[in-house]
Design brief:
Shape: globular
Number of domains: 2
Number of strands: 3
Structural class: alpha+beta
């Protein structure tokens, strides 16, 4: 739906429910960063992520559920892509998530990896009312 809006250059939906899909998601995130660095326009990568703790499933069952149920409802696709995206290594981005711990883990992994590379990193997780799987409600 967002891919038809003006200014949107790159939109892709990926899964984190298998090693193959994680590698594809890594490429999509890198491309998303590059679109931002090159100031080509808005870019978005949506990640379908298993949450075994809140789903009360084993990790393997959660991966299977994402692959067999979620992907049918939210198909993995690249709905919009830029024509030319050169890969560079200077990135600055914000991440946002809704409920669960996926975006927190992603931020931790990215910041830890950057620190291991000797880069200056700021990791500032912000918690809202929906943290750790609480059911969000509207007034």
């Amino acid at each position: 739906m967002i891919s038809v809006c003006d200014g949107v250059v790159y939109v892709e939906r990926c899964s984190l429910a298998s090693l193959k899909h994680i590698r594809q998601a890594k490429k999509a995130i890198r491309k998303c960063f590059q679109v931002q660095v090159d100031r080509l326009g808005f870019s978005l990568v949506e990640l379908l992520s298993p949450c075994p703790t809140n789903w009360k499933l084993s990790p393997a069952e959660a991966w299977e559920w994402v692959n067999n149920v979620m992907v049918k409802t939210y198909p993995l696709e690249c709905s919009k892509t830029p024509r030319d995206t050169r890969i560079r290594n200077d990135y600055s981005n914000d991440f946002a998530g809704f409920g669960g711990q996926g975006v927190l883990l992603m931020g931790y992994i990215l910041s830890h990896g950057a620190m291991l590379k000797g880069l200056n990193v700021t990791y500032f997780p912000s918690y809202g009312a929906e943290m750790r799987g609480a059911r969000p409600t509207a007034p």
